[in-house]
Request: fold
Amino acid sequence: MASSLTTLTDEARIALDTFAGRAAGLFSTRSLRLGVTGLSRAGKTVFISALVHNLVHGGRLPLFEAQKSGRIARAFLEHQPDDAVPRFEYEDHVAALVNERTWPDSTRAVSELRLTIEYESASAWNRMFSAGKLSVDIVDYPGEWLLDLPLLGKSFADFSREAFEMAELPVRADLSAQWRSLAAEAAPDADADEMTARRLAESFAAYLKACKADERALSTLPPGRFLMPGDLEGSPALTFAPLPAPEGKAPRAGSLAAMMERRYEAYKTHVVKPFFRDHVTRLDRQIVLIDALQALNSGPAAMADLERAATEILACFRPGRGNVLSDLFSRRIDRILVAATKADHLHHESHDRLQAIVRRLADRAIARANFTGAAVDVVAMAAVRATREGTVKQGKETLPVIIGTPLEGERIDGEVFDGKTETAIFPGDLPDNINAVFEQADAQLQRSPPEPPVRFVRFRPPKLERTAEGVTLSLPHIRLDRALQFLIGDQLA
Reply:
């Protein structure tokens, strides 16, 4: 799909930008651009903060070969090369995690951070010709914005038709009722009216936000800026909404439908295309973070919607391996990691099942997106481990539990937690038969989910251990080292 998102003019500009970047980097440190994305609350900010903290502070990373073998001399932050992109606020996020034991604010826009690693190559040949230095430019961006990219290949009529079809699904119908009622009352051929457009846009945005809430945990919710408007809030580019399809005729000039169509096209031109051209097409590697536990807790319809979102996300990337000549003019993503986050909310006995569920989801999404050309792997991980494991006796039965401090206000079985008390929780087990998860999701029959397979509560970040000298240790994790090995390990060989 990625090729259908651009015109020849777009491709020419991308090629020129890539060539200029390659030329400027000929005499500088070798660099790799790593994209980090995922849908809301999947843990993008926490992942980047933990990755950098563990590398800078020499964390425990036994599956990250360069660290395990002692070949990394040091890792440190440098000034990022893109002056027009906000810097990822690493220091603030780590202070929130370590000092305040609160989760940092979620990703709201594109940001970037440059981490430079000095290392010794494992190969004597490489040591002769390589400086042993790699700069990893970490690009953080909301997955909701990525889901806008398919809009580039859709007309306003296509967008409107699909929006109404989605809104009428059982899991969305009650949430979209007010907006659909307003849209039905609107007269697309009537004169354009700013207040009508505003009411429709606000009602449509409220419906999308309700779909995103924890109770439904839906994922496919374009346009993404309706959820995260940033500095575009209130602008005409965000004051539009789908309209019922006219009967086979172009909208009349000056009509409400013509206004909505024009603003939709402006959104694509001034918001979506620059994001794709300036950020997505410049990536070398990519990690897609997925909160599958929230979708599992919310029922089959949420799982089906998560798979739909994963399909659209993967279809937007430019996969493949280049050669010396093609790499001068085009970047291709040659490795993508799909990571199921919050594995620390389950006992390790269920980690393999979580990973199998996300692998099945990724395989189906890859097949549906017709995605080929890049190595894809899947991992169940927790960038910051907020719990530890234990067992409790319940009658004659011994139950595996996770132990941590639930966030204030979290509840389970009628108990409300105060945010201070450490608690042992039996989270439940994921189903042995993962096929059943997808069979139910394909049916999309239920709006109200059955009893969830796991009892999901959110925990505070852990209290970090200190050495005898009072030095704070690095952030604990689950399989962050495996993620690092897949994403950048080959670059440090």
